[in-house]
Amino acid sequence: MNIALGFLLFAAAFVASLFGLGGGVLYTPFQLWLGVPFQQAAATSLLLILVTSFSATIVYRHSHRVDWTLALVLEIPTTLGAFIGGFLSHWLSVQLLTALLSGLLIISAYLMIYPLHRKFHSCARETTPSTPYWFLKRSWEGQTIWLDLRCVFAIMFILGALLSAVGISGGVVKIPLMVLLFRVPISIAVGSSAFMVGLTASAGFLGHATAGHVHWQTALLLALPVFIGAHFGSHLSVHLNSQKFKKLYALFLIVISLITVTRIF
Description:
mainly alpha; three-stranded antiparallel β-sheet; 3 strands
C-alpha cells in the first residue's frame, strides 16, 4: 500500500508545488482511498503539506520568488478570519458557502485570462500615498506598489472566514487574489503561497501530533516522494512563461471549482 500511496503522493506534490499549493486537498483523499484511518490521514496530510512547502520554498527562494514580508502580512488577517469562520460555521449553510467558493474560483479563472483595468485594483497603487503609514510598499520585477493595508486586511479576513467555514486552506484562492487585487506578479504570488501554506499547516499538525494521531514511520516514509515531487513541480513552475502560466492556472481553477461544487450534492 505504501508504494502505491508514495506514487500517488509524488504526483500530488508535483501538481501542488507547481501552483504554489499545499496539496492537502489531494493527500487526505488518497490515503483514505487506500484504507488509512481518517485521523492518521489528516495528521499525515498536514506533515506532507509542511514537506511540500519546505521543498517548494527552497526552489522559489533560490529564484527570488518569495516575498517573505507580504506572506507574513497576509497570514495575520487570514488566520484571524479562519478562527472566526470556524467558530461561526455551524450557523451557515455549507451548500451556500460551497457554491460561493466555486463561483469565486470561476470568476478568478476568467479574470486571470481577461484581467480588469488597472483602476479596479483598489488595494494597490503606484504613486506614493499622502498617508503612507496605512500602506505597505513592495517592489517586484521592476514595479513598485503601495498596498492599502485596510483593504488588504479586510479582504484576507473575509477570505479566511469563508475558507475556514468550507474547510480548505485556501492557497488556490489566495493566489488569484494576490494577482488580481494586489497586483502581485503571478510568479511571486505562487512562490509566496508555497511558503504560506506551510505556516497554515504547522499549527494543525502540532495539534494532531500532541493528540497522538501521527504514525511517524508511515509519515516519514511518505515524506520522501512528496519532497521530490514538490522539488520537480516548483522547478517546472519557475521555467514557465508568465502568460502561459496564468492560462494554465485559470484552467486549474476551473477544474477545482467543478470538484468543489460537487460537494453540494
